[in-house]
Structures are given as structure tokens and as C-alpha cells.
Design a protein that fits this description.
Layout lengths: L1 H29 L20 E11 L3 E4 L5 E5 L2 E11 L4 E7 L2 E9 L6 E8 L2 E7 L6 E19 L2 E6 L2 E13 L4 E11 L1 E8 L2 E8 L3 E10 L1
């Protein structure tokens, strides 16, 4: 009798265990399958605008040469200056850009050589907008060196005579060469260093002591600048 009860008890325990396991399996089957957490969406970095501006302090260093047609030993020199400059760039590709350079300055014109005794001949303001086509190198990390070449149209205005009672320097076209680099602090802001050479030879007329003269002012200035770059 005792053995029968023992067997019955074991049978009940085994049956209960099977029922519990079956119930747990059924409940597990009813639960939705576990899913991996969805990856956090990362916003794409917006493409940079093709537009860029720079503001520079610019040193204008002239070549100090010129000639007066009627006086073979005459020469000319010009004052140097430091001015602010704004330029606007447009990137056609990562490597190719066009840059328009804007700034204005003045130049005092002095007689040299056989007319050195005349001293200051006069003064003119100079507006030399320059358009260059540039190639930008993109393989140097934060450093973005570039080279460029283009055309310059120089306008002379607000001209006043000194030793010359009248001074008229003619507007003229010229070529421009350029080399520089940006050091980009981030995607938008950077520091810039730039050197340009303008090939600028302008005809002029002047009246000195009642006599009319003509000649050529060979300024050929170096433009050396440093400033801040902002890429939109």
C-alpha cells in the first residue's frame, strides 16, 4: 500500500512538472520575438554652400617704375599702403573656384631721376577689382592651399595734382597671379594668407609748369594679405 502511494505521488509530481513546462513553452510561444534596438538615425551633414567670403588686411607694395615720354631720364615712384579687402569666392567643384577681389587704396606719385626735384607730382585713388580662377588642393587636411590666375581692371579716380597742376592716370586692364592657403578651423571658419601679383602699367597725362607730358606708370604691385575665411 505504501509503495502504491509512493508511485502515485511520483506520478503526480511528474505530471505537474510536465504541465508547468508545457504552459511555460506555450506562454513563450505567445510572446513577440525579441527585436534588436533600432539604430539611432544620424543626420547627414549638410553639404557646404559653394559661396565663401574672406576679409583681409592687405599690404600694397608697388614696383616704383615709370617713364615720361618727353624726358628720357625721368622715372616715377609710388607710395605703398595697407588697406582692408573683401573677396567673394564661388566653388564650381571641391577643387575649382572663382574669386572676385575688392578693395581700394590711394597712391602718391613722385618724380624720380631727372624730375626728382619736383617731388610729389600728385595723388590718385585706385580701385583694382580682380577676378581669378583658382585650383584648390584638398589632400592636406585642414590646410587648403590654392593657386590662381586671372584678370584685373584698375580704375583711377579722385586724382589731384601737386607739382603737376593736372594729373590723369588712365584706367587699364592687367593680368593677375595668386598663391595662398586657408587653414580651416572647422567646416566654416578658417584663417587665410594670400599673395597676389598684378601686372599693372597705366598711361598717364600730366601738366607740369604749363607743359603737357605723357608717359607710363608701371606700378606692378604685390598684394600681400592675411585674414579670416568663412564658408557658408
Amino acid at each position: 500500500m505504501t509503495r502504491v502511494r509512493t508511485i502515485s505521488t511520483r506520478s503526480l509530481v511528474a505530471t505537474a512538472t510536465l504541465l508547468l513546462l508545457s504552459s511555460a513553452a506555450a506562454m513563450a510561444a505567445d510572446l513577440p520575438a525579441a527585436q534588436e534596438p533600432a539604430p539611432v538615425a544620424v543626420e547627414d551633414v549638410a553639404a557646404l554652400s559653394p559661396w565663401q567670403v574672406r576679409v583681409r588686411g592687405l599690404g600694397v607694395i608697388t614696383n616704383d617704375k615709370g617713364s615720361v615720354d618727353q624726358i628720357g631720364g625721368a622715372d616715377l615712384s609710388y607710395s605703398d599702403s595697407v588697406i582692408p579687402e573683401l573677396d567673394i569666392s564661388y566653388y564650381f567643384t571641391d577643387n575649382i573656384a572663382a574669386e572676385l577681389i575688392l578693395g581700394t587704396t590711394y597712391a602718391n606719385v613722385y618724380g624720380e631721376g631727372d624730375i626728382a626735384g619736383l617731388g610729389k607730382l600728385g595723388k590718385t585713388w585706385v580701385l583694382p577689382p580682380t577676378l581669378t580662377l583658382q585650383y584648390h588642393f584638398t589632400d592636406f587636411g585642414a590646410f587648403k592651399p590654392y593657386v590662381g590666375a586671372g584678370i584685373n581692371y584698375t580704375m583711377f579716380y579722385s586724382q589731384k595734382g601737386a607739382a603737376a597742376s593736372d594729373l590723369d592716370v588712365k584706367n587699364t586692364f592687367g593680368a593677375a597671379l595668386q598663391v595662398g592657403t586657408d587653414y580651416m578651423i572647422n567646416d566654416h571658419w578658417g584663417l587665410n594668407f594670400d599673395v597676389k601679383k598684378l601686372f599693372l602699367k597705366a598711361d598717364f597725362d600730366a601738366t607740369i609748369v604749363g607743359t603737357d607730358y605723357s608717359g607710363k606708370a608701371k606700378l606692378d604691385p604685390w598684394l600681400i594679405g592675411a585674414g579670416v575665411t568663412y564658408r557658408f
